[in-house]
C-alpha cells in the first residue's frame, strides 16, 4: 500500500496541474487557436505523384498565410493542415474522411484529386455537414447532387472536354484546316470514362467523328495493341486521358512506332500536366502535343504577385521543379478557405459553409491557377473556372487557348509535322 | 481487318509475349524446385528496374551494361532472401508438406515490404531511362519493330534455352532437378538441399536482374510497376505449365499474341478478359498447363 500512495500523489498533482493549465489556456487564448484544415490526397498508390504536389502546394499556402499573420478575423489564428492519405482508393478515402471529421475535428476539408475517391468521400462530408473544397476531381456529378457543403473550384469534366474541342475549333478557324476524325484513349475509371463521354457528346454536336473509342485500365505494361488500332483507323487527332505512368508509356511507344496524327495529340492533363512526365521523356516525344490543364503554365512568367513567385520558389526547393497544375490547385484551395475564414470570423463548420458559399474572388493568390474568378453556383461549382490549353513548342508549354491568354510571341503549329519531317 | 494490321498485331504479340515469358522464367523455376509460389516476383523485377535506373542516373552507366551489376546483385538478393527468410520456414514445416503454403503468405509479406520501401525510398515519381543514343525501330516490311523490345524477347528465348541446357548438363543443374523431384531422396544422396534452394532462388532473381536491365530501356519505372508484371507472370507460368521452362516462353507468347490480335476486334480491356477465358479453357483440357506433365 505504501508503494501505491507513493505513486498516486505525484500523479494527482500532475493531473491537477494539467487541468489548471488547460483551463488557463482555454479561456484567454481561444481566439488564436489554430484552425484545423483536413486535406485528403492520394499520397501513395497510382496517383501519388500528383497527390504529393498538391500536398506541397497546400502546405506552402498555409505557411504563407501563417507568416502573414494568420486569420485576422480570428485574432491571428494560424492554419494547421492535416493530411490524410487516400491511397488513390475510394474505400480508404471514405474512412480517412470520417477520421478527419470525427477524430481530427477539422473545420473544412480539401481534396482529393481522384474523382472515384472524391465522389464517395464528399458524400461522407455532406452527411457530417463539413464543408469540402474539391481539388482536382472533375467528375461532373460531384457538384450535381444538390449538396450543400461541397464546393469545387476547378473545372467540371464537361468544361475540360468542351475546351479541348473549342481549341480545335479555334485553331481551325485561324488556319482554315481542321481535323475530321478523332481517336480517344482514356483510363477506364471515373475520370477517363466521364471525359470520354463528354468528348463524344460535344464532338458529335460540332461535326467530328470518333473513330476509335478505347478505355484502358490503369497501370498498363504495353500500349502496342491500342496504338495499332489507332494506326488502322488513321484518325486526324487523338484525345488522351491517362494518368502519368500510362501516359508516359503511351507517348513513348507512339514515338517508337512513329505513329502520325496530323492534328496532334490532345491530352486532357493527367500525365501531361505532371512535371515528372517531362523529366522521363526525350523532348522529341512530346513536341507539338496539346495539353489541357487547370493551370496557366506560363503564369509564373507573366505574374508580378510576390506570393505566387514565392510559392513557385518554395515548390522548386521542395520538389525540384516549380509550380504545377496540382501544386497550384492545392495552393489555391487553401487561399479560398482562408478567404472564407476571414469573412466567417469563425471556424464553425456551419458559418464557414455559408462564407464559402458567398465567395467572390476576383484577384489574388487564389487565382494562381489561371481562373478568371471564383464564385460558386447553388450546386457549389465555380462558374468562373476555366482550364488553359497549351502546346509543347520548343521544349516549353505555351498557352494557345483561350486566345486572350495567348502571348504575342506564340505561334501554334497546326497541323503538326509528321515524324519523318521532324 | 487487313493482312498488314494482322501481321503487325502478331509481331507486337510475339515481342510482348516473349518478354512476359522471360520475366516469368524465374517464377517458374522457383516454383518448380522449391514449390514456393513467389508472390514477391514482381517486386524483385521492380527492384532490378530501379537498380538499372539508378546506375544510369547516378553513374551514367548504360542500361545494357548495367546488367553486369544487376544480375549478380539480384542473384545475391534472391540467395539471401531464401537463405535468411524463407528457409527457416521450410525447415519448420514438416517434411511431409510438399508445398509450403505459408511460404506464399511470407512472400506476400516480402512483396508488401519491398513495394512500400521502394515508395518510401524512391518516392512516387515515375522515372524512365533515356539513352543518349537513339535506337531506331527496325522496319520489317513496313512494320516498325522496336529494337529494345526485340532484344528483350530474343533474350527471353536465349535465357530459357540456356537455362534448360544448364539444368540438364551441369552438376549443380542436376542437383537442382534432383531436389525438385524429391528433396528427401536428394538430401540422402548427399545434396545440400538448403544450398540448392538458395541458389535456385538466386538464379530466379538473377534472371529478373537481366530483364530489369533490358526492360529499363523502354518501361517507365514506378514503385508499383511490379504488380502488373507479377500478375501476368502467374498467368503465364500456370498456362505454360508450372515449373516448365519452355512452357513459360510458350505461355507468354500465347497470351501476348492472343491479346494483340483480339484487341483489334474488341477493346484491349475485353481482350485481356478474353485471355483469361482462354486461360481457363486451356486448363480445362490440359490441367497441368500447355507443357506441364500431369
From TrEMBL, chain A:
Residues 34-365 form the Leucine-binding protein domain. Transmembrane segments: none annotated. One of its GO terms (biological process) is amino acid transport. It comes from Metarhizobium album. Residues 1-31 form the signal peptide. The keyword Transport applies. Gene3D superfamilies: 3.40.50.2300. The keyword Metal-binding does not apply. This is ABC transporter substrate-binding protein. Keywords: Amino-acid transport, Signal, Transport. Belongs to the leucine-binding protein family. It comes from the Bacteria.
From TrEMBL, chain B:
One of its GO terms (biological process) is amino acid transport. PANTHER family: AMINO ACID ABC TRANSPORTER PERMEASE PROTEIN, BRANCHED-CHAIN AMINO ACID TRANSPORT SYSTEM PERMEASE PROTEIN LIVH. One of its GO terms (cellular component) is plasma membrane. The keyword Transit peptide does not apply. CDD domains: TM_PBP1_LivH_like. Keywords: Amino-acid transport, Cell membrane, Membrane, Transmembrane, Transmembrane helix, Transport. It is found in: Cell membrane. The keyword Mitochondrion does not apply. Belongs to the binding-protein-dependent transport system permease family. LivHM subfamily. This is Branched-chain amino acid ABC transporter permease. The chain crosses the membrane at residues 14-37, 44-61, 67-89, 101-122, 150-167, 195-221, 233-258, 264-285. GO terms for molecular function: transmembrane transporter activity. It is a multi-pass membrane protein.
Amino acid at each position: 500500500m505504501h508503494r501505491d500512495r507513493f505513486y498516486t500523489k505525484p500523479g494527482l498533482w500532475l493531473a491537477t496541474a494539467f487541468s489548471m493549465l488547460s483551463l488557463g489556456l482555454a479561456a484567454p487564448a481561444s481566439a488564436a487557436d489554430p484552425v484545423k484544415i483536413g486535406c485528403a490526397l492520394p499520397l501513395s498508390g497510382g496517383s501519388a505523384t500528383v497527390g504529393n504536389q498538391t500536398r506541397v502546394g497546400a502546405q506552402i499556402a498555409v505557411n504563407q498565410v501563417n507568416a502573414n499573420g494568420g486569420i485576422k478575423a480570428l485574432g491571428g489564428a494560424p492554419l494547421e493542415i492535416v493530411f490524410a492519405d487516400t491511397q488513390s482508393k475510394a474505400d480508404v478515402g471514405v474512412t480517412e474522411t470520417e477520421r478527419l471529421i470525427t477524430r481530427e475535428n477539422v473545420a473544412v476539408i480539401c481534396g482529393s484529386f481522384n474523382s472515384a475517391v472524391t465522389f464517395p468521400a464528399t458524400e461522407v462530408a455532406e452527411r457530417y455537414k463539413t464543408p469540402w473544397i474539391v481539388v482536382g476531381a472533375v467528375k461532373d456529378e460531384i457538384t450535381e447532387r444538390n449538396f450543400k457543403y461541397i464546393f469545387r473550384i476547378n473545372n467540371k469534366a464537361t468544361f475540360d472536354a468542351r475546351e479541348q474541342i473549342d481549341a480545335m475549333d479555334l485553331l481551325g478557324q485561324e488556319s482554315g484546316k481542321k481535323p475530321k476524325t478523332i481517336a480517344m484513349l482514356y483510363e477506364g475509371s471515373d475520370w477517363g470514362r466521364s471525359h470520354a463521354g463528354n468528348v463524344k457528346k460535344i464532338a458529335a454536336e460540332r461535326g467530328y467523328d470518333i473513330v476509335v473509342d478505347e478505355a484502358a485500365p490503369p497501370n498498363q505494361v504495353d500500349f502496342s495493341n491500342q496504338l495499332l488500332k489507332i494506326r488502322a483507323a488513321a484518325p486526324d487527332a487523338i484525345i488522351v486521358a491517362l494518368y502519368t505512368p500510362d501516359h508516359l508509356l503511351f507517348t513513348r511507344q507512339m514515338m517508337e512506332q512513329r505513329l502520325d496524327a496530323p492534328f496532334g495529340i490532345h491530352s486532357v492533363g493527367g500525365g501531361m500536366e505532371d512535371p515528372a512526365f517531362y523529366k522521363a521523356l526525350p523532348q522529341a516525344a512530346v513536341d507539338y502535343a496539346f495539353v489541357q490543364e487547370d493551370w496557366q503554365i506560363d503564369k509564373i512568367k507573366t505574374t508580378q504577385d510576390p506570393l505566387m513567385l514565392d510559392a513557385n520558389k518554395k515548390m522548386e526547393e521542395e520538389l525540384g521543379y516549380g509550380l504545377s497544375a496540382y501544386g497550384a490547385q492545392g495552393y489555391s484551395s487553401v487561399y479560398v478557405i482562408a478567404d472564407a475564414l476571414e469573412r466567417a470570423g469563425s471556424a464553425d463548420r456551419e458559418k464557414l459553409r455559408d462564407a464559402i458559399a458567398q465567395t467572390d474572388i476576383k484577384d489574388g493568390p487564389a487565382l494562381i491557377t489561371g481562373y478568371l474568378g471564383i464564385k460558386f453556383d447553388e450546386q457549389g461549382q465555380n462558374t468562373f473556372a476555366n482550364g488553359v490549353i497549351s502546346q509543347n513548342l520548343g521544349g516549353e508549354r505555351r498557352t494557345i487557348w483561350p486566345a486572350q491568354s495567348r502571348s504575342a510571341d506564340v505561334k501554334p503549329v497546326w497541323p503538326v509535322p509528321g515524324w519523318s519531317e521532324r | 481487318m487487313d493482312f498488314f494490321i494482322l501481321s503487325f498485331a502478331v509481331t507486337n504479340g510475339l515481342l510482348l509475349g516473349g518478354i512476359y515469358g522471360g520475366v516469368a522464367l524465374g517464377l517458374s523455376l522457383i516454383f518448380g524446385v522449391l514449390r514456393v509460389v513467389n508472390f514477391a516476383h514482381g517486386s524483385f523485377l521492380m527492384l532490378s528496374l530501379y537498380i538499372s535506373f539508378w546506375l544510369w542516373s547516378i553513374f551514367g552507366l548504360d542500361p545494357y551494361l548495367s546488367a553486369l551489376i544487376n544480375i549478380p546483385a539480384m542473384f545475391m538478393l534472391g540467395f539471401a532472401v531464401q537463405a535468411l527468410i524463407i528457409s527457416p520456414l521450410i525447415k519448420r514445416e514438416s517434411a511431409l508438406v510438399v508445398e509450403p503454403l505459408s511460404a506464399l503468405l511470407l512472400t506476400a509479406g516480402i512483396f508488401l515490404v519491398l513495394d512500400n520501401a521502394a515508395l518510401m525510398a524512391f518516392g512516387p515519381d515515375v522515372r524512365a531511362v533515356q539513352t543518349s543514343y537513339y535506337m531506331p525501330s527496325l522496319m520489317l516490311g513496313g512494320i516498325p519493330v522496336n529494337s529494345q523490345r526485340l532484344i528483350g524477347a530474343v533474350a527471353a528465348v536465349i535465357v530459357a534455352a540456356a537455362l534448360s541446357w544448364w539444368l540438364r548438363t551441369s552438376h549443380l543443374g542436376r542437383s537442382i532437378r534432383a531436389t525438385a523431384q524429391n528433396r528427401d531422396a536428394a538430401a540422402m544422396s548427399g545434396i545440400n538441399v538448403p544450398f540448392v534452394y538458395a541458389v535456385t532462388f538466386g538464379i530466379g532473381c538473377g534472371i529478373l536482374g537481366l530483364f530489369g536491365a533490358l526492360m529499363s530501356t523502354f518501361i517507365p519505372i514506378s514503385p508499383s510497376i511490379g504488380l502488373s508484371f507479377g500478375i501476368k507472370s502467374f498467368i503465364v507460368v500456370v498456362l505454360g505449365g508450372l515449373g516448365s521452362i519452355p512452357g513459360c516462353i510458350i505461355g507468354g507468347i500465347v497470351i501476348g499474341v492472343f491479346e494483340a490480335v483480339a484487341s483489334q476486334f474488341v477493346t484491349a480491356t475485353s481482350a485481356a478478359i478474353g485471355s483469361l477465358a482462354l486461360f481457363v479453357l486451356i486448363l480445362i483440357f490440359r490441367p497441368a498447363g500447355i507443357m506441364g506433365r500431369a
